[in-house]
Specification:
The chain has one domain. Helices cover about 65% and strands about 0% of the residues. It is built from 18 helices and two strands.
Amino acid sequence: MLRPVSSGGSRPADRLGSFGGRLALIAALGAAVRVAYAVAIAPGTAGLSDGAWYAEVSRRLVDGHWFEERLGAGLVPTATHPPLYPLWLALVRLVGVHGDTALRASGALLGTVTVCLVGLLGRRIAGAGVGLLAAGIAAVHPLLVAADGALLSETLYAATIVGAMLAALALLDRPTVLRAAALGGCVALAALTRPEALLLLALLVAPIVWLCRAASRWRLGAAALACSLLLVAPFVARNISVFGLPLISYNDGNLIGGANQMSTYYGRSLGGLDFCISRGQPSDEAAFAEACRRRGFAYAEKHLTRVPVVVAARVLREWSLYDPYGPELRDQGRRRLVQGIGVGVDYALFVLAVAGVAQLRRRRVALLVLLAPIAMVTIVAAVTYGSVRLRHGAEPSVIVLAAAGALSLRTVRRRSRTPPRAGPEP
């Protein structure tokens, strides 16, 4: 039987010192695997990929150009992606790390943080055994290792998502305004890495606040929302000033246009993403995104009867149940073989995660916290496109659920092998 570690104490086997030492060893293994992958196996950053954008913008930040990229002979403002990951890369550059391989290897640090946070999350929900097993899976899971070796925001995104889940559990332990603000802040940091994380305000923050005492719900909810808005407001205000639209990122237009066209409705990229090609030369990236957005919505309106099929394909593709090795993998900065092995590992984790859900079914709060990122990535896939990369924010939840399921199945198996005790002789 799995038992969560209560805030009031712990069993001897769950003492933090013993747990922390073993978690540190697992984290060290995860760091070594990530560095080796980034240096020896991972592909270099492609010239027109998202990774190239992150590399260029972070370099411009160090040079004093605030979120600008080169277009033609000059520099123009950019908000293609949110700001947090470029700022992280700029910080890495400031300490002397510059080359493509070195920058990608720096993802090992963020990946190691994620491994530790996954271990703490598993321990908090179902005990030290689940925490250590979950951390061990996260340390060597090919999809997580591959993401940490690519120059893409997922390596930071996973850490912020797990941080938000831990903050949610901490708020339930002791509902205070400070902890509510911390939860809102974690969600904001995740949104400043990938904007779809704002969905967690509805999927995670609101339900958790509702479970707190009725007298403090509104105060806690206001604190969480205010902290989220306070953190995202500066970049949104900058985008309003520069582009005239209140968004964290303008990539949504490119996604809508690229996900709603003939090749993604009827072609080999069904449910996936293709390039959005602009007619003419828009004045800036916001105008380009708006043109793609209009074109995508117009195409969807003309093919409404096809939309249910496309949405189903997107969701199935998101969870590797349809064409998991499709053409959308081309710009993800990952080796196809490693990606394929990772998808196979996830199939096994999905099965174990179902057992984990069954094991934790009576712990509704734990399930609510773990299932919120899974619901988030599924919703995002339904309205945009399906890809293994887009489900990265849910991988920690799947891993923790799978660890809980694996240990529960082991317990059941041991009990089935234990012979019944003989009764007293008559």
